[in-house]
Amino acid sequence: MNLPNLITIGRILLVPVIVWAIGSGQMQIAFLVFLIAGVSDGVDGFLAKRLGMTSNLGAHLDPLADKVLIVSIYVALGITEAVSALDRHPGGVAGHFDCRRRHAGMVSRQGRYA
């Protein structure tokens, strides 16, 4: 077990803290912890690649940590309805904004901006 793997495990352990913060309406805390998790992802990647600390465990653990973090946050935001139903549009948030532009008359039938 090397340092990048320990940092990745720490990132996984931050997930319940973020979900708790979202669930209790503490969005600033959730965002701050999410930023810490993001920085830790960069740090463990830097250590692993630049300093030759890669491992098979890390190759599997790092993407797993990323997915657990993002999916947990999105589910928590959905359950607490912090993300509106329109933002859960099949096209995602980008699809939602594209639909809003079309309905606002900002996009012509040819898909160009009016």
Task: Describe the structure in your own words.
- With 114 residues, the chain is mainly alpha-helical.
- The protein folds into 2 domains: 3-83; 85-114, no CATH class.
- Helices cover 71% and strands 0% of the residues.
- The chain contains 4 helices and no strands.
- The protein has helices at residues 3-23, 27-50, 56-79, 92-103.
- The longest helix has 24 residues, at 27-50.
- The mean pLDDT is 83.
- Structural category is mainly alpha
Q: How large a portion of the residues is in β-strands, by DSSP E? A: under 5%
Query: Overall pLDDT, averaged?
Result: 83
Quote the distance from N terminus to C terminus: 57 Å
Radius of gyration over all CA atoms, rounded? 19 Å
| Helix-strand topology string | HHHH
In total, how many beta strands? 0
Task: Give a quick account of the main beta sheet: strands, pairing sense, barrel closure.
Answer: none
The percent of residues in helical segments reads over 70%
> What's the structural domain tally?
2
Low-pLDDT runs of 5+ residues are: none
**What does the overall shape look like?**
elongated
Report the total helices: 4
Give me some keywords for this one.
2 domains; 4 helices
Quick description:
With 114 residues, the chain is mainly alpha-helical. It has 2 domains: 3-83; 85-114, no CATH class. It contains 4 helices and no strands.
